[in-house]
């Protein structure tokens, strides 16, 4: 049984979170390398486009997602077993079962069905420095990881 085809699509939770039309998400994600000319009878409608994307914490309709999946770049495949019945939703209270925050409770802030990730508010955080320049010390931001 092949599960890779299931993982190449956007999860239902991501679509509901976005509140954007499916046509817009599809159009913003597509990376067409080559298309046959339209309106000419001697050409069959064919399209060469990217079908394999690597999903991260950036949503598929954002510029960061496009930058991480630049046309022409190939990234290593991530093997994820899809969950049949997704039971975690934004706003649910959950308890962490493994990791450095084991036993702590928190509220789900983001759900990534494509990678089986859940981000819990206030847990599994790391500090990130933004706008660090020669004459400006920058700002430290706390960001959460899945």
UniProtKB/TrEMBL annotation:
Domain KOW intervals: 87-114
Superkingdom classification of source: Eukaryota
Keyword annotations: Ribonucleoprotein, Ribosomal protein
InterPro entries for the chain: KOW, Rib_uL2_dom2, Ribosomal_uL24, Ribosomal_uL24_CS, Ribosomal_uL24_KOW, Translation_prot_SH3-like_sf
GO biological-process terms attached to the record: translation
CDD domains hit by this protein: KOW_RPL26
Keyword Isomerase: no
Record GO terms (molecular function): RNA binding; structural constituent of ribosome
GO annotations of cellular component type: ribonucleoprotein complex; ribosome
PANTHER family attached to this UniProt entry: MITOCHONDRIAL RIBOSOMAL PROTEIN L24
Family classification: Belongs to the universal ribosomal protein uL24 family.
Name by which UniProt lists this protein: Large ribosomal subunit protein uL24m
């Amino acid at each position: 049984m092949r599960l890779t085809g299931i993982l190449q699509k956007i999860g239902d939770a991501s679509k509901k979170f976005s509140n954007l039309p499916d046509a817009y998400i599809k159009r913003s994600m597509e990376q067409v390398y080559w298309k046959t000319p339209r309106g000419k009878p001697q050409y069959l409608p064919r399209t060469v486009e990217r079908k394999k994307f690597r999903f991260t914490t950036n949503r598929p309709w954002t510029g960061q997602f496009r930058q991480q999946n630049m046309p022409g770049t190939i990234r290593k495949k991530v093997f994820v077993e899809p969950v049949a019945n997704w039971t975690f939703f934004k706003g649910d209270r959950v308890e962490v079962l493994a990791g450095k925050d084991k036993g702590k409770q928190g509220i789900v802030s983001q759900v990534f069905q494509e990678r089986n990730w859940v981000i819990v508010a206030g847990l599994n955080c790391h500090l990130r420095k933004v706008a660090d320049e020669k004459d400006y010390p920058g700002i430290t931001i706390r960001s959460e990881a899945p």
